[in-house]
Design a protein that fits this description.
Oligomer: single chain
Distance between the termini: 32 Å
Number of strands: 8
Strand content: 5-15%
Length: 440
């Protein structure tokens, strides 16, 4: 089974080999293999001679284990066992640590300490909505600014919409420009007696109401945080905008990762349309866990029909060998001669012995016949062909909507990927089967 001819093949190796390609972003819905795809691309690019870092936002340990690393953190760690002339480094985003690094880098020591110790900041940096996606953008910007790696491969956050990664700068900007934040910042901006008057009159009204809802201490923590962060808010927006432009630049390539299932490809179609609307450079679609069969010419209907015939005994062995030939040669109505011993000898077993023998045979379960085994295999094949047919329909629906999107299929593996060898196999299948090592 192959993709419809309208879907152009995605050429992965030229994308990885092109020195102009500096960032590859893997996005898609949850559970479709984004992390594995990102790791496999990193391994393949490194073994083709590039210096690569893979940034994952997935908190699972799969990536570290598959690369032979005990654990990943906010610092890139080199992966051992890479063949060829390149290097591979891997890291997992530590959201809070990244936020702390920003504060430490853009505030004087006293102000930084005040921010880091603030309870509201600690809550914000640990789990505020959108913080993870924004910090992923920050980390990507930091990695690209260092210019230490030829290629950065990003595994986007495991959120319901993987394009939250793109929305994070806008959401943070809206938060920082919101009326609530501006109101809290106003006293610090006005200063002097005017500021104190505003604080004593206007703020007392607001804090009186919000204090009942949120708690007075919480509100004071927010005010302290906003006052300390005031000088940094512009920097957040500036860096976020710069990273957003970086994602739109020609050196960036987005890969939408999906499984050949209706919901996953529906999400993939949404991602493709959204990337086009945002002006993001889409390289293509990676279709993971595609099933195949070496006997695709035998349809599900024919396999089921053959299984039914075998089970009902309608398919029998027509040839009975030499005995059948002798029986056919005997005159009609005559019985074949019995052996001499059977005509002259008495039965060797008594009736009781025969009865015991029959009881023993009935208690022993007979192994399945060849016909039964064959029928079972035919039914399994029929089920497999139904899966292939369903996958083909979903792929055809996607390619009919987006014929311009190149597609790379990755055949399903019999087990999970848990080492570099498995990642190499995924990389080989992504590229159409050619090995990575020895490439230019």
């Amino acid at each position: 089974m192959t993709l419809d001819a309208a879907a152009a093949p995605l050429e992965v190796d030229p994308l990885l080999d092109d020195p102009a390609t500096r960032i590859i972003v893997c996005c898609g819905s949850g559970g479709v293999g984004k992390t594995t795809t990102a790791a496999a691309l990193g391994v393949r690019a490194a073994e083709r001679g590039r210096k690569v870092v893979v940034l994952t936002i997935d908190p699972a340990r799969r990536l570290a284990q598959s690369m032979g690393i005990d654990s990943l953190d906010n610092t890139p760690r080199q992966v051992k066992g890479i063949e060829g002339g390149g290097e591979l480094h891997a890291m997992m985003l530590d959201m809070k640590r990244t936020f702390d690094e920003i504060v430490e880098a853009h505030a004087d020591p006293d102000r930084a300490r005040a921010i880091l110790d603030n309870p509201f900041y600690q809550s914000l940096s640990a789990g505020f909505a959108g913080t993870q996606e924004y910090m992923a953008m920050e980390k990507l910007g930091q990695l690209r600014a260092r210019d230490e790696w030829d290629l950065i491969v990003v595994d986007t956050p495991p959120s319901r919409s993987a394009l939250d990664f793109l929305d994070a700068p806008k959401r943070l900007g809206s938060f920082l420009d919101g009326k609530f934040i501006r109101l809290l910042m106003a006293p610090a901006k006005m200063g002097g007696r005017a500021g104190m008057k505003f604080l004593n009159v206007g703020m007392s009204m607001m804090t009186g109401t919000l204090g009942k809802l949120l708690g007075g201490q919480f509100l004071r923590d927010v005010q302290t945080f906003v006052a300390a962060m005031d000088t940094m808010f512009g920097g957040f927006r500036t860096r976020a905008d710069a990273t957003y432009r970086l994602l739109q630049a020609p050196g960036t390539a987005f890969l939408v990762v999906a499984a050949p299932e209706r919901d996953a490809l529906r999400e993939a179609a949404y991602f493709v349309e959204r990337l086009a609307a945002e002006g993001m450079p889409l390289a293509g679609l990676v279709l993971n866990r595609v099933h195949g069969s070496g006997a695709a010419r035998l349809s599900a209907e024919r396999a089921r029909a053959a299984a039914e015939n075998l089970e009902e005994g309608r398919i029998v062995d027509q040839g009975r060998g030499k005995n059948g030939a002798r029986e056919a040669a005997a005159p009609a109505g005559s019985a074949p001669e019995a052996p001499e011993a059977s005509r002259t000898s008495e039965p060797r077993t008594s009736e009781s012995e025969a009865s015991e023998s029959q009881t023993s045979e009935s208690q022993t379960s007979e192994p399945p016949s060849v016909n039964q085994l064959t029928a079972g295999l035919l039914r399994l094949h029929a089920e497999r062909m139904q899966v292939l047919k369903r996958e083909q329909r979903t792929r055809d629906r996607f390619t009919a909507l987006h014929p311009e999107v190149p597609v790379a299929e990755v055949a399903a593996l019999p087990g999970d990927v848990h080492d570099l060898a498995g990642l190499r196999t995924i990389g080989d299948r992504l590229s159409g089967g050619s090995p990575a090592t020895g490439a230019a």
